[in-house]
Specification:
The chain is mainly β. It is built from 7 helices and 51 strands.
Amino acid sequence: MNMRKRLHILLVLAISFSSLGLTAAVAADTRVIDVVEVTWPGARKVPSDATAIAKIINADVNPRWKSFTTLYGDTKDRTINFIAGEVLTTPIAIARRMPCSGIDSDTFMKLIKAEAYSRLGITDYSNRYLLIDAPRAGCVWSGRAPLGDANSTSGILVLHDSDSDFVIAHELGHTFGLGHTNFLRCETGAYDGPWGSNCQAIEYGGAIDVMGNVDTKSPLNTYHQWTMGFLDDSQVKQSWLNETITLAPSDFANGTKAIYLRDGKAAYWVEYRRKLPGVTYDAGLAIYRLDPPPISALQSPNPEDMTQPEFSQALGVDVWMLNLDSFTYVLSKTNGSMTSNTAKTYSGNISISATAVGDGAAVTITRTPDKTPPPLPVLGSTNFWQYPDFEIIQQGYEDADTAVAKFQAKIDGVISDLPTSITSNWAPTVLNPFNAPQTVHVRDLPEGSYSISIRAVDVAGNASEWTPPVSVTIDRGAPVALADFETTGITDNQYQVKWAGAKDAGSGLCMTNFVNEEGFITQRSDAKTAPEFVVNSTTPLVTTAQVFDCLGNGLTGNLTMKSTVTLASKASRSGKWSAAPASYGPDAQKCTGKCTATFTQTGRVSVVVGAGTAALTSGTTTLATIPNSTSTKLRIGASINLNKAKKSIRVTGSNFILNGVVTTTGSFTNVTNLDRKVPATDDSLTDKKQVALSAYGFNSADFSQEWTVLPMLRGTTLEDPSLDLCGSNYPSESSRIERRQISVTKKNSPYVFLSSEVVRYSSVTAAQAAKSELTKSLTQCVADGGYKDSAGAKIPYAFNALPPLPIGVAADDSRVFVNAQIDVGAGARQLLGFYQFNGAVFTGLYVIVDGDKAIPEDQVKRWLNAAVLLATRLNSKSA
């Protein structure tokens, strides 16, 4: 739910105190916070040592979170109880002052966590929180915690020169995935307005709950309750109409708790707060904006906030509170109430009023009638209408004023409502936090060939213009794939085999794939009919096959193919036969003069011959003529189909070479339908340099369609290192001029990391230097059993033997291949790293699996075969 990477820290400039006075029962959900103290040369004392902080957790922090998570009338025991756990009474001494920001701060927390639990003798801390009590380090913040989520049961908190129970409580909120409760303040005094120079986002200033930076024990706002899972979606009403909605108070468990409103590009979250003992606000509506500000409209005492990327439209964790009454916030001091019983959105299109009803309120929403039709839908390219899952309405289309209720089609002039489905790959956004937008997929269209136009109709009944008509053909008939194979060629110890039983009577075939256990495509054909593949002459081919037509329909199943040769030496022969020259192999026979060889066969039969010509007959019928050739290699002379009948066939000729006849048999079983999926769009391929690099590494055509193959974050830049094996220093990194690193992912992937990388160096010499550095690093790492990181901690490596390398990988002096376990215990992971060099270009293939169990040899072999493909690409391109 992050809009952008945020630092979840708390700046406390002045602390005020208010009390809600609620008590809660002991919770079934009890969470432990361990406490450690850190120090460094010249450091001051902390305000309270670790033992004192533990007492504050039990006496003050725990009651706060009990009250936040105990909702009135709740029939479930969801109260969260924080208690102090183990306390490390001797401070952990570090060599230098605690870093305040960036990756150094993240590393500091991780290292202290590892050291603390090592000293405490706790090996499983997956369900424990750690509080690091730090002295003054010159940071602008009082507390810091990495963002968790609603399911988190652990976290790290850093207290900086503070012993505030409020700060601890605030940072614990971040471990649940809660962002800040901020404040929208307009210089004109208006309580709402468009983001800009007038209306600013005041970081931390929404002091209505613990996620601001002013001490309060007021209940969490309902957006934060929803983020934590204390509100169901059904308890938030998304309103498009003039209506009255009864809201339960924010501290109640049951009933409708919040209203979501959208007004143009602004999004509002409305809740009702009752008057409680010790709170500074009056009973009334509290309203928050969810649409984020531009960075230029942000005011924050934390300089890092001002350098962050712009917010996206993804639904975030922060909210911006409106001041509906007399609220003020200056230098972390507040006064007045921010609630009211009436409000309007800044456009004036929506009015909101509340009338108290018991503890809650009846909230009336009044909208200016929407008479604006939706914008014209934008249709996706018909080149992609071959994919049933393709959304023909481009993503990002929406009605600016309300929501689209349906789409209509005009098919050959006849208007009808289209069945709709939700957009795929949807994630909650500011403008659509609950429900994926409606769209039309190719699968929603009727079958047939016709002209179609589409329009949208919104919830107010307004209709858009019709899109320009397009002509389409929708066919849902799957291809046919029977176990019928024809041997068409021979090269060395491999046969070329056509899958004669694979065809499609409509659009024809567009793609046939053979896929291994990893989802890697080992063979592929784009033939419209009878796709051709390679089968080893001695080993049956066993694989998963996928057969797709050109309109997105497909089949998948388990395929076996086996080529069997009946040798000429085993046939019934007449004439003069002798061993053929060695170039034809050990089994070929040479006919001198006129000869005949007779075979009994069934099905599709191909004759394997060398030089010369011959005729293929059955009875008095000539089945085929083998054309003359002077070839010194074996070839397929003729192929016939005997169907199911078993027949005697004769090969008759003069002065020719005969090896025998070959048949390819097999099966295609466990067949299921498989619609072709829309490939992910790779925007990097608009760059000519990236297009050139893409010819070397993995691409989407290398993997079955359940995998996504795209550049990883910063993968098309030089911002991240390429060579980092064993944490060594690689001076050659500065000689890189182009880079493309691909990440291969899918849901429930067995791999922590699967990637290929291509690097172009400034020269062949620079690439050779990189290879030398890599070899040196590996040699040292093997000798040392690992390396020491920047903090001096030993990172162990255990190296495993590789199986015999397949033919086709880079030469020994142009490759570095690694099979190793990195680290031990909970951090153990298995690495396959295949580094190959040619000229000024390097390609890497990286496979990482969690755990201390070595990658099985068969799996290693499959990735070595993938390395052969990358080596072939590396050698076939101009490096």
